## 1
Amino acid sequence: MGSSNRFVAFGASVPGETHKGKGIPNQDNFLLHPASCAGFPLVMAVSDGHGDPRCVHSHIGSRLAVESACTVFSKFFECNESSETWKSSASQIRQDLLKNLVQTWTIKVRENWLRIAENKPKSTASEDSFTNKDFYFFYGATLLSVVITNTRIFYFQLGDGDIVTVSLEGEINRPIPRDPRLIANQTTSLCSPQAWNDFQVASSSLNESSPALIFLASDGYVNSFKHENGFLQVGLDLLKAIKNDGLETVKNELPGWLCETSKFGSGDDITICILYNLNYLSRDS
Amino acid sequence: MHNTVPFFNFLISAFESIRVFLGICKIRRIFFIQKELAFMGKRPGGELATRPLHFIWIADCSGSMQADGKIQTLNEAVREAIPHMRKAADENPNARVLVRAVAFSDEVGWPISDPTPVENFSWVDLQAKGISSMGKAFESISLRLKSPPMDQRALPPVLVLISDGYPTDDFDEGLRLLLSEPWGKKSIRMAIAIGEDADQEVLEKFIDNPQIKPLHANNPESLVKYIKWASTSVLKAVSAPMTPSSEKTSESFNILIPVPPDVEPNNSNHPDVW
């Protein structure tokens, strides 16, 4: 299948139902690179800024996280060699890439923090309780990312949230299994020391049996469903909706669906990024 | 007589018009409901549900709780706190508060065994007698906090221990079992000591968080106040969306527990009785 693959990616992010009217910003962000989805590598990133009351800039932290992921991953994977090197080796390469990603994020955070500190006459009471070196915590965020090169698919996850794949036959998978330690709103984070060690990574070849649909979602989504299966069904339903109603309809309806899900579910911010393999659409039709 | 015929005709046609009108309304209503259902049916995914928040009262029912009406005050205080708990739960409709209670004396029992939605929760009066099997109570809670039956997406459970004395069993082993369960470790644990005889060290070990101290109730008024606080403010803090705040709080994990209410230790109207 290789480079003949054509993909379309899109997403939506809605503020949590319980956040509305309380002055709490949407702390999630997502980003696609390139935005046109033309060419490889194609990077999708979703980040969830921590809800901890002390993480006062986590909505910025999540934006910087998705920007960092798109910058670092697209640069690394822009030549085929990186994909192949990754395949054949080497924990060192993974380590270096993820370290680079985390460091890019911390540099961006530092710049933002200095800008805020310059413009603010006095820091808030909450920030006073921290020494300067702890300011990364104010920006704490998770990161989910999927990178498509012309030969492979890469999955990266730091913290809570979900990456789900759906085959054309309707088989649902989590390329990265749920981390049982991440319960009760606890999560690993970009602001943790040596955060690159907490990433979970998976990859697979891009071929005939590759997923028809992949989606990345912040944890507000899975927490809205009574049962795990109800959440996984999202993948099947999206696949069906794209086939039956078309991509544009799904894109337009998506924010409304997420708002409804937050309202009757977790009440949390919900963000989803969807990647659809257009080859399957044409094959199916 | 002649005039009545047109009048009846008028009534008949009026009824007919109303019937037709109502029929149209009904059809339109059905149409709109169907349209709404069709839209709702398209929302991807299965059944939605709010996140469970388990709240467990842990009540010391050993013989010493019989003295000076402690157990009666506890029963009354919890009963009085229930409407306030419901109100606190209402403030975050995306959390489903489920309450139960465990009591320990010679044995451990669950007078309210099933996680009961707070809107249906009613307190069962407890009786005091025997020794204080606190360690066994923790062991029993640890079994209930296993996953499953705990739901992966639950909010941190809240455990509130109310005790007036020393455990008489292997407290450390019970606590070890409780804290070795991921949900036990992640729970928000509060303790209310009744009177001066309560074992401070044991309660601090149970809380396992230097920023949260046991609350000391030396008279019925303060017990009522603390029980109400634990069942409302703590509940609210755990269930509420995280709001950036500069309020005075104790940091517990990623939950900010509000500062407990002040209780005058030597209030002349309510002198120390315990």
## 2
Amino acid sequence: MGGILEYAVFSLSLVGIYGILTLGLNVQWGMTGLFNIGVAAFFAIGAYTSGILTTPPTDAHLGGFALPIPVGMVGAIVVSGIMAFFVGIITLKLRADYLAIATIGIAEIVRLALKNETEITGGVRGMPGIPRPFDEMLGGQYELAFLIMLLILLGVLFIGLEKARTSAWGRVLRGIRENEDTTLAAGKDVVNFRLQAFVLGCCVMGFAGALYAHFISFISPDAFKPMLATFLVWVMLIAGGSGNNKGALLGAVAIWAIWSGTEIITGMLPADLTTRAGALRVLLIGVLLEVILVTRPEGLLSEAGERMRMIRREARRDKLAEDRGASGARSSAGE
Amino acid sequence: MAEFLQLTVYGIVLGSIISLGAIGLSLVYGILRFPHFAHGDLITLGAYLAFVLVTTMGAPVLVALPVGVAGTALAAVAIDQVLYRRLRRVAPVILLISSVGVALILRSAIQLIWGPSNQVYATGIQFPYRFAGVNIKPDHLIIVGGTILLVVALHLFLQKTKVGKAMRAMSDNADLAQVTGIRVNSIIIWTWIIGGGLAAAAGIFLGMDTRLHPVMGWRILLPVFAAAILGGIGRPYGAIIGGLAIGLAQEYSTTVISPSYKPAVAFALMVLMLIVRPTGLFAGRKV
């Protein structure tokens, strides 16, 4: 029983981290239509930044500043944001597909740097001993405490991004996504808004990276199989419903469940095939993505569906108000 | 001087391989209007299909090449007709996402069938020819010669045949081409045959030059994209120049920075091009 509970807590924490990544991508792709295939790069930048800032002094890699964990997290957000700013300044004036190609380049360079810049990142040996929050205070109960903290942070982030989405700022982003020229004609600084959305999304991804680093406590280039992580986040967002924060979270949960499910299926394979099981899992997820794109491209919770529900709700409210107003008018006419 | 010449040789070999990938990518980009992210994995597929013939029948690589090319062209057409065709009516960016999915499906299928480790076409050492202190392996001559042959064949196809002309017209201006009665679907199929076939040739040459590995194509995708953008999207001739430029730049860069950062050089050139002249050297499709 304890084992199952532990597994559930561990899984939920990973789902939460993927959920944050998906929310970050939703700001870029879902809301603004920016195509970022470098999700894993910003995730890794966040993880390594926080790792460098918070680990105890060491010679194995740069830093070991032993700063408090919240400082590491803020550092992760800031550094990913700065990276995103420079990438964005160069590429955001271009079309969505050029941005996509450019972000592959970023992901590739970050991957190479993690491996080769041994003095900064510890190279292939990775970076061990990243402190975990609440570890000293709670001892054994660390995982549960982390999950609760993660869910609170996720909740705060979700509410914040929902507010941003429904604000005037979010409307401009959707305008850019739907029709850039019209938005430009309406006097909005399109490139600037795109840059803001890109940087914000990357900050969220960097934050997720920091959380991951402090959760697992050890990071290495192998932990960031860039295509796999990026691809899973993309499938999550598209399956859940891009443009919709609720959909993004639902997608994270659903796809993670399927992803873990494939592990159970491949676990039943004969022993000589288990070394190739990872490839089979990726293949299944890839097929799933194509099926979703062909049959239900808007995802489980579509953005349009969300809007329809909102319009209906508003219509009902208006009708109520109208009825009340009309009956009030009638009664006043009767007097 | 000898070192410079040696790097030039390596650069031309690498540039030939990149060019073959970039021509197909550029044509697909120009005609279907989306960056085909699975192109790298078509390169890998071609290399492995030829590998099957080499290992099972003991065929020389050059005999296996046409089979690998045909098989990959067929696979590209099949992927298009089964998947991309259904998505063509929606935004091109959905095709982009779909091609990322196809890339992963192809790569994991290759890994599933042939395993995740390195493979080679032929073991043993090839003795290089030496000219004025420069080493040239027989394989290098085959790669460059094969590329020249393929490029000449492509040139004749694009200039002399009706399909080739229609293809260039589609790439220049799809709407105008359709008005003149060009049948879109058959041109698209031809684009995939050429794109897939050339990608396979690139993969087989890459496998001869280095080794076969399930991510070999993905690793070279960034330089291939850089070459296509440098030459101008939809410009097959530009892609050749772009490929050679990227190949040479990557090899020359090793005198200054660590060789492991070669892809970064391609990336830097691409970004520079996108800033200075986003239409490419030969004024391809406007952004």
## 3
Amino acid sequence: MGSPDVVSSGRLAGEPARRLSAASPRHGEKVIRGLLILCAALSIATTTGIMISLVGPSIGFFREVSAIDFLFGTEWSPVIQPPSFGVLPLVVGTLSVTLWGLIFAVPIGLAAAIYLSEYAHPRVRSILKPTLEVLAGIPTVALGFFAFSFVTPLLQDLWPGFLGDGPNIFNALSAGLVIGLMIVPIIASISEDAMSAVPAGLREGAAALGASRMRVALRVVFPAALSGIVASIVLGISRAIGETMIVLMAAGATPNMTFNPVESILAMTAFIGVTATGDIATGTIEYDTIFAVGLLLFVMTLVMNLISIRLVRKYREVYE
Amino acid sequence: MEPASTTSTRAPVIEPLTGVETAAERARHRGLPDPADVVMECLGLNVFYGSFHAVHDVNLSFGRNEITALIGPSGCGKSTVLRCLNRMNDLIPSARVEGEVTYDGIDIYGRAVDPIEVRRRIGMVFQKPNPFPKSIYDNIAYGPKIIGMDGDMDHIVERALRVTALWDEVKDRLDDNAYGLSGGQQQRLCIARCIAVSPDVILMDEPCSALDPVSTSRIEDLMVELKERYSIVIVTHNMQQAARVSDRTAFFTASPDETTGNRTGMLVEYDKTARIFTNPVDKRTEDYISGRFG
């Protein structure tokens, strides 16, 4: 019980009405609002800028080379006379590396997420998860070196004869595995977030019916967390498709239309990386190929994102 | 509140025993279930969460085909005791249980006991309705599927829904998502889901606290019907509910530890519901049920 002059009381009789207009116009608010809008607009402007810078030179490219020849041609030799601009070997190279990466990363990443979310003691999780996330921050050039100087020799040593010839010095498998290593933390961490967000009540409900932990994880938590899990995989695929350094260092530079993991390939990103830093004159058709390939990469990622959004809408189980 | 005194929480009731009665007569005299009809029993049950002593030395027996209500103020450990009865506390990493909890005379915390088998016989309904984000049909079918129950699944689903009086309300939309049901229907669905695996004991943790009075009344009626086939233990904050549905009532309270000041839950009094609500022995029970508590 405070005294009346300590506790601010309502208006007493005879006191003048309180002023409701602002003492000074709040310009600061408007400035802050403007700054925030600017920051939000920056990312949109950047995306638009990238699109324009890709589309412009690509138009020049497609005036010279037909889109059909580009998209469905199976021979990539832009600097040999006569040049051939069939991009399929590069697309297959990228997809091959991505595929081997995913075969490695998705099961391990999801298993790690299930362990962290459903089995690990909180103390174990509080150590493991940050460690895993640090893994995601390793520079890819270090990973590329690791693939080239450690994984490839290891694969060559361990290669069982019945699978045919062993891996080349440059091969898709080594690059794919190390890219997989790179995206395991992405898949594990984001999937774990999604699974941890599933209400404890659903787990308890299933456990009370006599479901084992594995069943609770796979039949209840997993479907409920599906949208986050798919998002993590899509992000992983995007990283794998876009990864440049590892494929450049470990997968080689031979346009090769094959999913055979032991052979050397040329990935789309590796082509862009090599060509952009090479000695091809700007403004030439050879130089414009970079933009055409870049645009195709952009479209591929976009289409994949759209498909995955559709899939998630269809299959996920929404909890409230 | 009075400190937890050294006096026995179970003072002699009504007429003193002469010392020549059978065990059954002594139990009846003290308002406990007949030893032959005990389905579950806690013996010297202590529960800890890390270093926190949540429940102190509970001895409590539950009668077969009876509804036993656990009442008491917040933090008195009644939900903790309930969750020990089907080892749901195993899901909490820091929880530790001492003492025995027997089911048909077997200690469910025994070395050879599989908690998953325990939970198949001792089901649970939770405070907040927690249907799975699946169809109504799949919610019921989930349990029978995972335990590999034989028989026609459609029949199992229909039976569970009929028992909980949901069938007529949902029979035309079994494929709809369970989240489209009202709160009371969701809770009855959770009871149906629990029944579908044919448990022996059903534990209910404040099953009506999130429901309106009409839904509450339906679930109370359902509980009374269910006790013909199942034994039910219910935790409730609603004393009228305990008085309406239960056969026996256990009153818990929390008393501060002398050294740490942590409040540890303990059983104060256990008796037939009628006697707890009309003629309690312990002053603390009387204060609580008459609304004079803290």
